[in-house]
Specification:
With 463 residues, the protein is an alpha/beta fold. It has 19 helices and 15 strands. The strands form four sheets. It has a six-stranded mixed sheet. The protein has a five-stranded parallel sheet with strand order 8-5-6-7-15. Bound molecules: pyridoxal-5'-phosphate (PLP).
C-alpha cells in the first residue's frame, strides 16, 4: 500500500512516511494509491470489538506495521474511552439513530484519530530515536484532542497555540490544566488565523523545523481520515437489518470535510451499500452551496453556536475533488491553483455522488436542540444539532454526535433548559489554570520552544 499526493508531484510514500510527513511536499494531500475492496470482508468483521475492527482496518492501510502491533496500538488508544463500546449506536426511534463519538478523553470525535496519532508518533520516536516537537494551532477541539493524544508520551513535546479569549473556557481548561510536563498550551492575541499564521511560519523556517524536528498536528494527516473511517463500518455493522434494508443516511456535522469524507471513502471501498451521506453545515455554508450549485466560493467566516464548524476553506475538500476529477492529479493541481488565486472554483454542475447537504443558522440550531430534547429526551451539542436539522423522511438517519453537550453548556441550557455536565469537565473546573501568554510572533514562539526543549520541562514556563 503506497500513498500518493493529490497533486501528483511527490514520490509515493509508505503509510508510516505519509503519517510522519502530514502534508505532501508538493502541497497536496496524501491518499492511498488504490483503495482496498471491503465488500466481501465487512460481514466477517461483524463480531469484532471496536479496537479489533480498527486494527484489521488499519492493517490494510499500514501493512508495514504487523497486525499484532496494530492491535496493541488500537487497544491502547480506544481503551482510554469511557464507554465499553467506544462508539455506541443509540436508537432514538426506528428511523433515528445516533452514533455517539464523544466518549474519548476530550469528549469530541477528534479523539478517535488523535489518540491513535499520538501513539503513532510515539512509535516513530522509538524507531528513529529522535525527539519530536509537535506544533499546531487550534480554535478549540483539535488542540485539546492533540494534547491528550500526546500527554505524557516520552520523546514528544507538544505546543498548541490558541487565540486568547476565543476558545470556550472548558476547551482552554482541557488544554491548559493537564499539568503534564510535555504539554505547552500557548495563548496568543488575535484570532485563530493569527495563531495558524505563526504555525505556518514556523514550518516555513526550514532551519528551525529541522533543529527541533517539527511535526504538524492538523486536520489533513491521512491517519486522521482513516481512523474516522472505522466508526462508519462499526455503526453499519451495529444497525438492525431492517434499518439497513430501509436505506441509511449518515448525517455528518461538517466543517473541514474530514469526517464526512471518511465515510464516503469507506463507500468507495465497496462497503456501506446504498448509503447516502449528508454534509450538515452551520451558517458557514460553503460546502452546502457547493453541493447544491457546483460552485465552491469562499466567504467570510461568521461566528456561530457551532464554533468548530466555523470554516470557509475546508482543508479535506481537495481529497474529494481528486476523486471527482477522475483521480487526475494535474486537474486537481489546476483546480487548487484556481481556488488559491480567486477563492472560487466552478465545476459547472453538482457532481453525481452519494453526498447531499444541509445548512442551519444559529436560530435553527437552538430550535433543533430544543426539538430533539422534547421529542426524544436526548440532549445534543450545537454541532450535532446541525445534523438533526431536517432529518430525511425517506430513510433511516444515523446522526453523528461529534461532541458531548457539556462542552457547550450555555447554548445547550438556553435551548433545552437542561444543564449538561460531564465528570471530567467538572474535575477540570477546580484545577489551576496556567495561562502561558506569548506574542503571535514567530520569534517569540521559536524562542519559547527552544527554551522548553532544552531546559527541564518543569521550569519551561513562559514569562
Ligand atoms: C464538535 C465538532 N463537530 C464537527 C466538526 C466538523 O468536522 P470536520 O471538520 O471533520 O468536517 C468539528 C471539527 O472541526 C467539531 O469539533
Amino acid at each position: 500500500m503506497r500513498y500518493i499526493s493529490t497533486r501528483g508531484q511527490t514520490p509515493s510514500h509508505s503509510f508510516t512516511e505519509a503519517v510522519a510527513a502530514g502534508l505532501a511536499a508538493d502541497g497536496g494531500l496524501f491518499l492511498p494509491e488504490s483503495l482496498p475492496d471491503l465488500s466481501t470482508r465487512v460481514t466477517g468483521w461483524a463480531g469484532l470489538g471496536y479496537a479489533q475492527l480498527a486494527a484489521e482496518f488499519f492493517h490494510l492501510f499500514g501493512p508495514e506495521i504487523p497486525l499484532d502491533e496494530w492491535q496493541a496500538l488500537t487497544s491502547e488508544a480506544y481503551g482510554r474511552f469511557d464507554h465499553p463500546e467506544v462508539a455506541p449506536v443509540v436508537r432514538l426511534d426506528d428511523r433515528t439513530f445516533v452514533l455517539e463519538l464523544f466518549h474519548g478523553p476530550t469528549l469530541a470525535f477528534k479523539d478517535f484519530a488523535l489518540q491513535l496519532l499520538g501513539l503513532l508518533y510515539r512509535r516513530q520516536v522509538a524507531r528513529t530515536g529522535q525527539h519530536l516537537a509537535v506544533l499546531g494551532a487550534t480554535s478549540g477541539d483539535t488542540g485539546s484532542a492533540a494534547i491528550h493524544g500526546c500527554l505524557g508520551q516520552s520523546g514528544i513535546t507538544i505546543f498548541i497555540l490558541y487565540p486568547d479569549g476565543r476558545v470556550a473556557p472548558l476547551q482552554e481548561r482541557q488544554m491548559a490544566c493537564t499539568g503534564a510536563d510535555n504539554v505547552h498550551a500557548l495563548c496568543v492575541p488575535g484570532t485563530f488565523d493569527d495563531a495558524q499564521r505563526v504555525v505556518k511560519e514556523a514550518f516555513g523556517d526550514a532551519g528551525f523545523a529541522r533543529e527541533v524536528n517539527l511535526s504538524a498536528v492538523n486536520s489533513i494527516n491521512i491517519a486522521r481520515v482513516l481512523a474516522q473511517c472505522v466508526y462508519y463500518l462499526w455503526a453499519w455493522l451495529r444497525l438492525p437489518d431492517a434499518a439497513r434494508a430501509a436505506g441509511v443516511e449518515f448525517v455528518v456535522p461538517t466543517g473541514n470535510f474530514g469526517n464526512v469524507l471518511a465515510g464516503w471513502l469507506v463507500q468507495q471501498m465497496g462497503a456501506l451499500p446504498g448509503v447516502r451521506f449528508r454534509v450538515a453545515t452551520n451558517q458557514n455554508d460553503i460546502l452546502h452551496r457547493f453541493f447544491t450549485t457546483g460552485e465552491y466560493e469562499e466567504g467570510e467566516v461568521r461566528a456561530s453556536h457551532a464554533p468548530s464548524m466555523d470554516i470557509q476553506a475546508a482543508s479535506n475538500f481537495e481529497r474529494f475533488l481528486y476523486y471527482v476529477l477522475g483521480e487526475d492529479a494535474a486537474r486537481t493541481r489546476a483546480a487548487m491553483a484556481e481556488m488559491k488565486s480567486s477563492g472560487h472554483l466552478s465545476l459547472g454542475h453538482v457532481p453525481a455522488t452519494t453526498l447531499c447537504s444541509s445548512r442551519v443558522d444559529d436560530q435553527g440550531i437552538v430550535q433543533t436542540l430544543a426539538h430533539v430534547w422534547q421529542q426524544y429526551g436526548y440532549v445534543v451539542d450545537p454541532h450535532t444539532a446541525c445534523g438533526f436539522f431536517g432529518l430525511a423522511s425517506d430513510r433511516v438517519s444515523v446522526v453523528l454526535a461529534t461532541a458531548h453537550p457539556a462542552k457547550f453548556p450555555e447554548v445547550v441550557q438556553e435551548a433545552s433548559g437542561v444543564e449538561p455536565v460531564h465528570p471530567s469537565l467538572e474535575a477540570l473546573k477546580s484545577k489551576p489554570l496556567v495561562r502561558r501568554r506569548l506574542a503571535a510572533d514567530l520569534g517569540a514562539v521559536e524562542e519559547y520552544m527552544r527554551r522548553a526543549l532544552t531546559v527541564p520541562p518543569s521550569i519551561a514556563v513562559a514569562p
